[in-house]
Amino acid sequence: MKNMYEQFQDAVFKKVAEHLKLRFPHRSLELVHPNDLIIEDLIFLKQHNKMMWDAGLKSRVMIDMQEKHPIKLVVYYRGEPVGYAFGCYNDELSSAEVHWMEKRNDAHEDLDHQMLGIVLDAFSTYALFLDAQGIKCDTIAMVSPVEGAKAHYLEGGFTFVANYNRGASAMVIQRVSKSSE
What we know:
- With about 180 residues, this protein is of the alpha+beta class.
- About 35% of the residues lie in helices and about 30% in strands.
- A seven-stranded mixed β-sheet has the order 1-2-3-4-5-7-6, with helices on both faces.
- A hairpin with a 2-residue loop joins strand 6 and strand 7 (about 170-175).
- The longest helix is centred in the C-terminal third of the chain and has 18 residues, at about 115-130.
């Protein structure tokens, strides 16, 4: 049975997907909170060298860390899992954080250079939802970014913070507030 956050994420991600799918030639984009079968799909991709990291392990690590509010997103396109972004809401920093993000290495060409934008749209919309629930969330953070991605994040408007949280670095972007939208 899904908990409250999972249900909220499913609803928010579904709305984001409805909006984003209009950008793609194939209108099949789906954004979902993963269940056990979806995690098995991602593990299958890892076992067949389509992904570098074990999404099942990354997903369980979030539970093991005792995160109060995990945020988990899996992207589907053309009926297949394409990638994932797992993170959490950090109440101390009022931020939605992405700790692990990966796109399969054979993703459809329609999704070239699209994963970060999809994840940002989903996490930002979820942050808006949290705001509407009275939970302040004004920052999106890509925690411990890989070295090769930093330039891409900087071009996208992020700022590098060397000591973001407990020694971890992050690429951070301030979310537009409700009052200025």
